[in-house]
From TrEMBL:
One of its GO terms (cellular component) is cytoskeleton. One of its GO terms (molecular function) is actin binding. The keyword Cytoplasm applies. It is found in: Cleavage furrow; Cytoplasm, Cytoskeleton; Midbody. Its EC number is 3.1.3.16. This is Protein phosphatase Slingshot homolog 1.
């Protein structure tokens, strides 16, 4: 273990953990060093030994302890450590070991909060060395990255399944296997069913409808991921589990709560754990997904399609209608539910309002951000972005009212100027003319701003869908 560490790093704690493999040994190791700010910096390493007698170990996980780190007991003899969108579960082999680990981790997290260590800053840059040393077997890496809060949308199987249910389970498994090795463009569903009957050595006439429906489902899952933009694919669980298809992919966005990351040791994942329901709040996640969108899990009908539409609206300045039609044209099964469409409409309003204010030179908008943008340290002390935007729009309305009032005063001054021998009226008329010139200048500025906004909302030539 000590051979893996850099000379300037020290071990603060090493706790043995439970393992799903009886012949393997796992350790959670907390190491620290003095950083660029001459302050203590801590990270957690996951160490793997191939067997109990092995003297050689490898690294399977590296977890930085940022200022936002949270620790929670799981009620099952372990605890979770969550930070910067990642979460890992640790189950020490004894109560005493868990107590020691919790004490050390809480003290390390207190240091991170005190000095405000955040991703992208100058702290914890040395963890890149250990990330480059991750060499554990894939099964070990998968165990470090296991997601314990997955929930299946399928109902539990009955204790004693019926004969038909058992047969349908066998049909599903064998049918998928058969279809994987058939030329589906030159074979009929009847021929596939006959092949299935030979494999199962029984007559499946009463299952004809079930087999046809299952074939359609498998065909849909076997479709390749759809190229939406040059760097964005929209796919399904099947695509995300097909390693051969993922050869050219580096990042995967998983917008599901019920599907695990299939290859956590090979790809960089970002998880948005939400249900496919109208009440689900996707809007809160779209700025994070905008920065991490390449390929998405789960059928590509609701959650993932909505996320790609939101990405297109922000990246290319498209309206909701244009972005929706573009994605729908590329992937016909994309169908956001009513709740997601309402959120997309709200998101369109946010983007339009922000763009309008950004184009108005009368408003300094350097600090206006959409929901979810910026770190906690960066947004501290500012109004909520939506409230900020509302106040600015109200201020804009007040300015318009002031302009109308100014017009009335100009009219009154013009009337006075028409009175014979009224020198005071002439002066007021001159002032009115200067005021009118100023007002026209402002109108021209607003017109130019509108033209720039219209140009920004136009479709890029590379993605002409007209």
């Amino acid at each position: 273990m000590f051979k893996i560490l850099r000379s300037e790093d020290r071990i603060k704690l090493a706790v043995r953990l439970e393992s799903s493999w009886s012949d393997r040994v796992r350790y959670m190791v907390v190491i620290y060093t003095t950083g660029h700010q001459d302050t203590e910096e801590n990270i957690v390493l996951g160490m793997d030994f191939t067997d109990k007698d092995s003297k050689n170990c490898s690294i399977g996980m590296v977890l930085p302890l940022w200022s936002d780190t949270n620790i929670h007991l799981d009620g099952d003899g372990g605890f979770s450590v969550s930070t910067a969108g990642r979460s890992h579960v640790f189950k020490p082999v004894s109560v005493q070991a868990m107590w020691s680990a919790l004490q050390v981790l809480h003290k390390a997290c207190e240091v991170s909060r005190r000095f405000n260590y955040f991703p992208g800053g100058i702290a914890l840059t040395w963890m890149a060395f250990y990330e480059s040393c991750i060499t554990s077997e894939q099964s070990c890496i998968n165990e470090w990255n296991a997601m314990t809060d997955l929930e299946s949308t399928r109902s539990d199987s009955p204790t004693m399944p019926t004969e038909r249910e058992r047969t349908e389970c066998v049909i599903k498994a064998k049918l998928r296997n058969i279809m994987m090795f058939q030329d589906l463009e030159n074979i009929t569903s009847k021929e596939i069913r006959n092949d299935l009957e030979q494999h199962m050595n029984c007559n499946l006439k009463e299952y004809k409808e079930f087999i046809d429906n299952e074939m359609l489902l498998i065909l849909g899952q076997m479709d390749k991921a759809t190229l939406i933009f040059d760097h964005v694919y929209l796919g399904s669980e099947w695509n995300a589990s097909n390693l051969e298809e993922l050869r050219e992919v580096g990042f995967i966005l998983n917008v599901t709560r019920e599907i695990d990351n299939f290859f956590p040791g090979l790809f960089s994942y970002h998880n948005v754990r939400v249900y496919d329901e109208e009440a689900t709040d996707l809007l809160a996640h779209w700025n994070d997904t905008y920065n991490f969108i390449v390929k998405i899990h789960k059928m590509g009908c609701n959650r993932s399609a909505s996320t790609v539409i939101a990405y297109a609206m922000k990246e290319y300045g498209w309206s909701l209608e244009k972005a929706y039609n573009f994605v729908k044209q590329k992937r016909s099964i994309a169908q956001p539910n009513a709740g997601f469409m309402r959120q997309l409409a709200e998101y369109e309003g946010i983007l339009d309002a922000r763009d309008a204010l950004l184009e108005d030179e009368a408003f300094p908008m350097a600090h206006l951000a959409l929901p979810g943008e910026g770190t906690a340290a960066q947004t501290c002390g500012r109004l909520d972005p939506l409230e900020d935007m509302r106040l600015r729009l109200e201020f804009s309305t007040l300015e318009e009212e002031d302009e109308e009032e100014a017009k009335k005063e100009e009219a009154e001054m013009a009337a006075l100027a028409q009175t014979p021998g009224n020198t005071e009226g002439k002066k007021m008329e001159e002032e009115a003319e200067r005021s009118e010139e100023s007002r026209l200048g402002l109108a021209n500025l607003n017109t130019n701003n509108s033209n720039r906004l219209a140009a920004k909302r136009s479709c890029p030539a590379a993605f002409d869908v007209s």
